[in-house]
Amino acid sequence: MKAGIFKPLKSKPFRSLFGAQLFSDLGNWLDLIALQVIVAYHWGLDETAIASVIIVLGLPWVIIGPFASVFVDRLPKKAVMIVCLLLRVVFVAGLFFAPNLYILLLFVFLKGTVSALYDPARQSAIRMIVPDSLLPEAVTLSQLSVNMMKIAGPALGGGIIALFGPKSPFLFEAAGFLIAVIFLLFLPNLKKLEKSEEIEPAGKPEKRKYWFDFSEGIKHIAHTPLLKISIILSSAAFFIIFLYDGLFVFIAQHLGFSEGNFGLLISAVGFGSVAGSLLLGQWTKWNRKPIHLMASSALFSGTLIIAVGLGGVGVFNLPPLAWIIGACLLGLLGAGESVPYGFVLQSETPKHMMGRVSAAAMSLQTFSMLIAPAAGALLARWLGVPSVMIGAGMATILLGSFMLLAIMKGGALNQPPKEKQIQA
């Protein structure tokens, strides 16, 4: 028990998979910083160009990922991940040599497409190689990688740009993807596990219809209450977060943060996320009632968001340190939503359809993330930035309250995921 969150790393296959994820996640954040610096500083383009990059980056997850994931479930997962990483190296080279915004957007889209295929394959691999008893720790480690690279990636990217120029992070990103490939080469062949988990539709032992497989994943979400409600909660939470995320720099000005110490506020959120992931990985009793934790985290984080909004209109006049501590708590509570969601996604999905289900869920979340910033900007112009924060906090509290009411009704939401495992 002392190993806590790191117990899954005793497994050699998971070590290989996790090592690949670390370098893949790092590459993603190096990429994001480099793209924005090139567009805004190197080419001197406006906010519309930055917005187009963000939209094109997320578009493949919405329009391609869910449909292509059917093939991901049919193909060998190890081969899919390796091919996707190698293609990402090629497309990163395209980003490095892109002469203008249009060529850049093309390679951003292509890279986003293979990323949207890589992640379902990675989720499937986790489900195959990690025993059910270690799923909470494995999912938490995976989320920890994401949260850590959100902090390390931008900091490292900024340093690389300062030393070697605006396009240099792409070279480091490509190297990271190649290192990830090396890690995956040590991953055992998953073909036997995949075959043992496959279920052929009755009457069609050999050829499975594409739309049958596609709809099977959607139907599974619709007919699994715990999974369905966690996806809805997570997607709504993403929408609310990204409603105010782009406005955070403006609310920071209202709170008295300068250009120099604004970074401390963002770093505090990231630090809280990492601390929350470590805490949940060490204490895994929450895995029996993950929705309870998600709902409770939403209630408390909504209260903090309202406090930030009220600070923006002068109701609360606190020193910067107090707001930094609040930002840290906000990040910690964010882990209280993201980690249980990842566990529900894994534990409530049969291994043979992990790719389809995870891609469908990611599609809904990404769609929320894409439309929210525009809605937030419009609301900010109409109502003001602090009002958007207060509204977002109230919406978060309502979301958590709705979830608690659904829990109080009992039924499937109160059953521990491991007791409702769908046997593949």
Structure description:
It is a single chain. The chain is mainly α. The chain is built from 16 helices and no strands. α13 (290-312) packs antiparallel against α14 (320-347). The chain is globular and about 60 Å long. 50% of the residues are buried. It is found in: Cell membrane. InterPro entries: MFS, MFS_dom, MFS_trans_sf. The chain crosses the membrane at residues 49-72, 79-97, 170-187, 229-250, 262-281, 293-316, 322-345, 357-382, 388-408.
The CATH homologous superfamily of the largest domain is termed MFS general substrate transporter like domains
| Overall pLDDT metric | 83
N- to C-terminal distance:
29 Å
Taking Cα atoms only, what radius of gyration do you get, to the nearest Å?
21 Å
CATH class category name of the largest domain: Mainly Alpha
Backbone structural class: mainly alpha
CATH topology of the largest domain: Growth Hormone, Chain: A
Largest sheet: none
DSSP, total strands = 0
**Strand residue content:** under 5%
The global form is: globular
Domain Major facilitator superfamily (MFS) profile: 1-418
Protein name: Putative MFS family arabinose efflux permease
Membrane topology: Multi-pass membrane protein
Main location: membrane
